[in-house]
């Protein structure tokens, strides 16, 4: 009985604590910075924030509720759907033009519960770590709504919504970017639930019927309307740090038969290099306590999950980070083994 009371008390705390949407601070969140930076920021449904977005769409409410706020929700209410879609189309054409003469494109993707100012610190560290030629290399800083809370009891509550948000950010946001890039060497570097954003961009995610229905009714977004990943002749390498995903994320469900099968990845995906770390306190928490209530995160925790996936995806391998307890993005990219991973994929780094 005590265990049940504690469980319900914990759930009460998780629900009650303040959770907010992760939104841009800049009025022009989808912009270009010198010498070779593309900033890309999408909301919970993968829509790109337009210029001066607060003027038209307003500040999001303090509630991080899934139906509280989204660009398409407000655009629909104001009759601005075509305007929002037009901005995204124009933006993708601008990205296509900017990277046209480049050889490599590095795309950084953060995890859940990560405010943009903290994320940018990690992004800048990685940008300076990589040995880049500004004339031949481009860096895309990709931001998505992984929600945010400062209360330690709210992490699991954030996780429930962030799992779906990450898939939407991948299918509608990151995939849109990838479809704008042709014949390049693309390196996707993700952290935590950012691995789901990447995987969802490269394959089709499976959404529950209730989520799909709610997203259509409340946000005017059809989860089945995402454009397919274009075969643009790119060479894609994925480096996933502390990937908070599991076997199920690589599976798709046949809605007719109700059976699952491993998804097919684009032939453009040449390598997937992940970390495993069974001392990562965050991944351990999700694999252990409440693991039956939360979507699996054991790929970044257990080597045997990666070994199972290698049977279906021979392009996958791992580097063992066991011994490091932190789940923080900044700690993973500052671990010397991160440089080893980059070098293993033929990516030169600065000392």
Q: Could you characterize what this model shows?
A:
The protein has 12 helices and 10 strands. The protein has 351 residues and is of the alpha/beta class. It has one domain (19-344). The strands form 2 sheets. It has an 8-stranded mixed β-sheet, sandwiched between helices. A two-stranded antiparallel ribbon has the order 7-8. Helix 6 (155-178) packs parallel to helix 7 (194-202). The longest helix has 24 residues, at 155-178. The relative contact order is 0.13. The model is unreliable at 1-16 and 289-293 (pLDDT under 50).
In whole angstroms, the N-to-C terminal distance is 56 Å
How many helical elements?
12
Mean pLDDT: 89
What is the string of helix and strand elements?
HEEHHHEHEHEHHEEEEHHEHH
* Beta strands, count: 10
Percent range of helical residues: 25-40%
Unreliable stretches? 1-16, 289-293
Which characteristics define this entry?
10 strands; single chain; disordered N terminus; 351 residues; alpha/beta; 8-stranded mixed beta sheet; 12 helices; globular; 15% strand; two-stranded antiparallel ribbon
Task: Please render the helix and strand layout as text.
Layout: H1 2-16, E1 32-33, E2 37-41, H2 53-57, H3 71-78, H4 81-99, E3 104-109, H5 116-129, E4 137-143, H6 155-178, E5 185-191, H7 194-202, H8 209-219, E6 235-241, E7 251-253, E8 260-262, E9 269-276, H9 281-287, H10 303-310, E10 316-320, H11 329-334, H12 336-344
């Amino acid at each position: 009985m005590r265990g049940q009371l504690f469980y319900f008390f914990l759930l009460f705390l998780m629900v009650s604590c303040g959770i907010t949407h992760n939104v841009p601070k800049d009025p022009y969140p989808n912009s270009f910075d010198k010498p070779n930076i593309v900033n890309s920021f999408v909301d919970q449904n993968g829509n790109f924030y337009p210029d001066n977005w607060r003027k038209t769409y307003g500040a999001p409410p303090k509630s991080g509720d899934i139906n509280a706020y989204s660009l398409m929700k407000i655009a629909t209410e104001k009759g601005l759907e075509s305007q929002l879609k037009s901005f995204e189309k124009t933006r993708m054409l601008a990205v296509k033009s900017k990277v046209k003469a480049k050889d490599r494109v590095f795309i950084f993707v953060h995890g859940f519960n990560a405010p943009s100012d903290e994320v940018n610190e990690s992004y800048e560290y990685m940008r300076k770590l990589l040995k880049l030629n500004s004339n031949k290399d481009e860096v895309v800083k990709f931001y998505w709504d992984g929600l945010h809370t400062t209360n330690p009891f709210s992490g699991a509550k954030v996780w429930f919504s962030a799992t779906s948000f990450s898939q939407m950010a991948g299918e509608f946001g990151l995939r849109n970017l990838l479809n704008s890039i042709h014949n390049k060497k693309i390196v996707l570097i993700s952290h935590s639930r950012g691995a789901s954003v990447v995987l969802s961009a490269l394959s089709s995610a499976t959404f529950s019927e209730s989520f799909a229905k709610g997203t259509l009714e409340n946000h005017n977004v059809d989860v089945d309307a995402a454009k397919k990943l274009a075969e643009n002749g790119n060479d894609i390498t994925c480096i996933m740090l502390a990937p908070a995903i599991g076997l199920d994320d690589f599976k798709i469900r046949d809605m007719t038969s109700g059976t699952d099968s491993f998804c097919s990845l684009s032939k453009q995906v040449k390598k997937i290099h992940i970390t495993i770390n069974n001392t990562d306190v965050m991944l351990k928490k999700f694999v252990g306590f409440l693991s039956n209530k939360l979507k699996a995160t054991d790929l970044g925790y257990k080597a045997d999950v990666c070994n199972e996936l290698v049977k279906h995806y021979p392009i996958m391998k791992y580097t063992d980070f066991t011994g490091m307890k932190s789940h923080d993005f900044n700690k993973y990219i500052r671990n010397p083994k991160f440089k080893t991973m980059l070098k293993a994929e033929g990516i030169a780094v600065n000392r």
